[in-house]
């Protein structure tokens, strides 16, 4: 018979994981905690759930412990085309309109499945787009699929599913997009599998939007059955970040049980038959400027860090891990006397605040005049354009950066990230190699080359770049913010690379 955990212990543990992980478990969901802890206890080296509670609460949680707990306290069970009204609305309204508007221009679509579990949802998106776009090979389609559970991501990347994943799915989906194997599993078609990129991302902790993890300039974000696990403070933080990840007129989709007028007040609510979507319609939210609160100095030993913090982590937020990450990014610029106006902050410092709040058009407007001649201002404008999905404009400003300082490796790195987003992989690789020629210890350039060469099937070269990046991160302090990372620390990147290897 399963042991029964005392209510007082469940109360203390629910409060503990709320403060450390942002997860919300009211009393009616305490049985979920008990079931999850029984499964997790052996992984932590404990004999039962009660001992597990006492052991975990004896010290701050590590990131590994957070990930193990998240994998057992959240449900990863899903299936293809789950919540049919949502996919009907995507097919008949959202995707058709996007495809029509982009066909004569960029032929580019970006979709993010945040909390993808074992991969059925992003593959459903890939199948749907494949059926809607006959010439899909001529399009630049990005389907990013992220999750906090490495086991889910490993399963998803295999693209292999059992019959249970196809319940309530039309028979022709299996027949047209999967191959049945001898053990009665179904392998997804290679061209569909190639459309989806799986990656680790912790919505409660990691930095997004960011060019580093490709979470910027999204047309559609699906974040279903994820927000319901977070407490209110974490929900607000995640929704704000997702808002900033969307382009103007982009769509956020949550599960019917997660809809909220208060939580999504910055969005326009759009009701379809059986589904509610949220649309980003405000170009420039009214910012509350706070320039000085997050300003810190930049070390002269990092000359290729072109832009100060300029990301969601530039502003104070709840510290959800025991790693001593500062509330503000440690590579922020301190305004110098020549940049400070008598009647207020300098244009660049004001633009940083606007950028952190997702007001990307306002950043461009602020810095494209006389204030836009500094290399750091040029870089910030390029990032602002990229986060709006205006890649041609972003590349023009990258070219301007290179012309302004041909020996600055950060300029080539930013150029590479935008070329990658355009699907110009060879150009991105060439730009990254220029960055490494100028700065052989440029951590993110090695990491980016590892990702790109992996996409090209050059596994040995990819592993070499990942290991170089990992070695370089270990030479830094865990909490040190990496140049060009928009807030990612050396310790965090080391964990990501280790998991990928």
Layout of secondary structure:
Blueprint: H1 7-21, H2 30-44, H3 49-56, H4 63-73, H5 84-103, E1 108-114, H6 120-132, E2 140-147, H7 150-158, E3 160-161, H8 171-177, E4 178-180, E5 186-188, H9 190-193, E6 196-200, E7 218-222, H10 232-245, E8 246-253, E9 268-272, E10 275-279, H11 347-356, H12 360-367, H13 375-387, H14 391-404, H15 409-421, H16 425-438, H17 443-455, H18 459-473, H19 490-500
Parallel strand pairs: 1-2, 1-7, 2-6, 7-8
Antiparallel strand pairs: 3-5, 4-5, 8-10, 9-10
Helix pairs in contact: 2-3, 2-4, 5-6, 11-12, 12-13, 13-14, 14-15, 15-16, 16-17, 17-18, 18-19
> Main sheet, how many strands, which sense, barrel?
7 strands, mixed
Unreliable stretches (pLDDT < 50, length at least 5) are 284-343
Q: Proportion of β residues?
A: 5-15%
Helix-strand string = HHHHHEHEHEHEEHEEHEEEHHHHHHHHH
Integer-rounded radius of gyration? 23 Å
The residue fraction in helices comes out at 40-55%
Distinct helical segment count:
19
The overall number of domains is 3
- Could you give me the name of the CATH homologous superfamily of the largest domain? Vaccinia Virus protein VP39
The CATH topology of the largest domain: Rossmann fold
